[in-house]
Every structure is written in C-alpha cells, then in structure tokens.
Design a protein that fits this description.
With 349 residues, the chain is α+β, with helices and mostly antiparallel strands. It folds into two domains: 9-253, Glutamine synthetase/guanido kinase, catalytic domain (Creatine Kinase, Chain A, domain 2, 2-Layer Sandwich); 260-347, no CATH class. Helix content is 48%, strand content 16%. It has helices at residues 3-9, 13-16, 47-61, 79-87, 93-96, 133-148, 182-186, 190-199, 231-259, 261-277, 283-298, 307-316, 319-326, 332-347; strands at 25-34, 69-73, 103-107, 112-116, 122-129, 155-156, 160-161, 173-180, 202-205, 218-223. The strands form two sheets. An eight-stranded antiparallel β-sheet has the order 2-3-4-5-1-8-10-9. A hairpin with a 4-residue loop joins strand 3 (103-107) and strand 4. Helix 4 (79-87) packs across helix 13 (319-326), helix 10 (261-277) packs across helix 11 and helix 13 packs across helix 14 (332-347). The two termini are 15 Å apart.
C-alpha cells in the first residue's frame, strides 16, 4: 500500500470533502444528548443499567436501514485507536477512557458517530465539512426520530429533554463550528471578536472542545444553553454569527494585504520552507506553520499547494495519526521526525 493510500484511509469525511466556506469553516457539528426514562444516568448507573442501554440501542440500530452503522465496544479498541478517534473529533476524551458498556456506532464515512454511555445514555453526533449545520441537523434529526420512536426518552413537559449536565437540558442540542481565524489573530482583533461572540451567548473553545486551547488559530464556537430554545433557533443563531465571523476574517485578510503585504508574504513563505525542509517538527509548531501556509494559499499568495492538503495535514500530524500511519507506538522525538517526513511527502504528492 502506498503512502497516499495509507493517508486516504486515515482521512475522515469532514476532513477530506469540500463544503461551503471551507477556507474558514473547517467543519460543522450537531450533537444531541438523550437519556432513557427510568434508567440512572451513566455517572450513577449500575453495570446492569448501562448494559440495558447498550442492548436497547443495538437492537434498534442493527435493524434500521437508513444508514450503515458499525458497533464497537470502547474497551475492545486499543488505546491508540481511541486516541485516533478523539483526534478526528468523533468521540470525546471522556468516552475514550475505559469503562463498562461504553460503545460507539460509526458510519463508513465517519460523518456519523453515536456514543453510548458517555455523559448521557445516547449522544448522536454528525460532522460535515464547511458550513453545513442544516444538513448535519437533518441527518441527526432522522436518527433521533428513529430512536425516539422505539425508546422512552427522559423528557419533561416543563424542561424538555433531561440530561446529566443542566446546560444540555431542553432541546439537548449542541451545535458547533470549527473555524480557522489566522488573519483576525495577525491583526490583533481575535480577542475583541471572541469577546463579542461570548456576549451573544455562544461558547468559544479550543481544538478539542471544553477545557482545551486554540492551536493553529482553530476555534470551536457553539451554543451554551439549550433550555428555552428550539433546535432551529439554536442553529439559525449560530449560523448567523458564523457568517459574521467569516466576514470579519475576510476583512482582516484584506487588511493584511493592504497594510502588511510584504511582511505576511515573507512569513507565509518562510513557514512553507520550514515545513518542506525541517528534519523534525513538533505538533504545536507544525500547526502554527500549517495555519500560516493555509492562510497564504487562501489569500492567493502561495499558489503551488492546494488548501485542502493543508486542512488534511492539520489532522494527520497529530500524535495518534502519526503512530497509526507508522503502524507502531513512537516516542516524542520519533514522532517529530516522522511528522516532518509526512508533511514533506504530502506536500510533494
């Protein structure tokens, strides 16, 4: 198998496919939190109750024909495979930890992942490339309807869908976008923009969601509350704010060309040179350099590299991906060397 085949086999749909506003919005995600009535939530459930959740969901999803889904027990997956799924944003770091009756339903394209016995009994997640919140909601809603037709969800006429975490009570919907905002950072406008977003009732998080930091100028923006808000209101609000962010990032890119043209051209080409010739490179440094080069491509300054390649590399250079491609565990130094080799090979494909 060639390196190209290995890389392609490690790319999930939201990374490799195209989508609206893809130069700024890397992905759109819809996640629904659901629990089954009369069963304790996972954090308090006994093993028998967790097993009952798994049994009921498997019975339903194994018989449906809407989409092909594969079931996996988290405890049956090697640690590296679980870390890989976290890096792909398919499962949460919490769900990657060992625990009784933790399961995953995964679609072939990896655009759909249903977590069983994570923080809630059921978490339906759909990931799409670019700004496609509506499409992601359509897919997630159909799966939710299927399950709700055969399960008694924990639901209150007053509070809506009940959840382990109060912030998910209500519609149980968490809608989010992953955005690449390097120009706002370079023009020192990122803090102002993120502050304005927070005042609009949206949460701003880092690359891996809650508790993580931004890496490579990538941010996750999502709704904070679901109580008292319909699914469509949540999605429309996030979509509207995201379009404003896109406009601000595009304006910042124009400002860079007007005010700092020679400086940014030098910075972007130096970054490309380091990526092409470094012998070893850390994940943190490579994300920074990839962000610079991707911006250079999207602004038309670098024209001999495809922007999609940079988006792919932002995922492929993460530790678990490097080790998966190599087929073995590596220490930090070995990963840094293999990361540099992978970047150079992918840029030359």
């Amino acid at each position: 198998m060639s390196l190209k085949d290995i890389i392609n086999n490690n790319l999930t749909y939201w990374v490799s496919a195209d989508g609206p506003e893809r130069d700024i919005v890397l992905s759109s995600r819809i996640r629904l939190a659901r629990n089954i009535e009369k069963l304790n939530y996972p954090n308090r459930a006994k093993p028998a109750e967790r097993a009952e959740v798994t049994k009921r969901v498997i019975e339903i999803l194994s018989r449906q024909e809407q989409v092909k889904l594969h079931y996996m027990d988290v405890n049956d997956l090697p640690v590296l495979e679980r870390e890989l799924m976290v890096e792909k944003h398919l499962i949460s770091p919490i769900h990657a930890q060992e625990g009784s009756e933790k399961g995953i339903f995964l679609a072939d394209q990896e655009n759909i992942c249903i977590m069983i016995n994570e923080e809630d009994h059921i978490r339906i997640q759909v990931l799409m490339p670019g700004l496609q919140l509506g499409k992601a909601w359509e897919i997630a809603g159909e799966l939710d309807d299927l399950l709700e037709g055969k399960l008694d969800y924990a639901f209150s006429e007053k509070w809506g869908y009940l959840s382990t975490c109060p912030t998910n009570t209500g519609s149980g919907l968490r809608a989010s976008v992953m955005v690449h905002l390097p120009a706002l950072n370079l023009t020192n406008n990122i803090a102002k923009m993120l502050g304005a977003v927070s005042q609009l009732g949206l949460a701003v998080r880092g690359l891996y969601g809650e508790g993580s930091e931004s890496v490579g100028n990538i941010y996750q923006i999502s709704n904070q509350l679901t109580l008292g808000h319909s699914e469509h209101d949540i999605i429309d609000n996030l979509k509207g704010v995201t379009k404003q962010i896109i406009d601000q990032e595009k304006q910042a890119r124009q400002l860079l060309l007007q005010k700092m043209e020679f400086k940014v051209k030098d910075q972007f080409r130096r970054s490309l040179g380091l990526l092409k010739y470094a012998y070893q490179i850390s994940s943190q440094e490579s994300m920074k350099l990839l962000s610079n080069v991707k911006l250079g491509i999207d602004m038309g300054i670098i024209d001999d590299v495809d922007s999609g390649v940079l988006s792919e590399l932002m995922v492929l250079i993460r530790p678990a991906h490097i080790q998966k491609i190599e087929g073995k565990e590596l220490d930090e130094t070995a990963r840094d060397i293999k990361r540099a080799e992978l970047i150079q090979a992918r840029l030359n494909m």
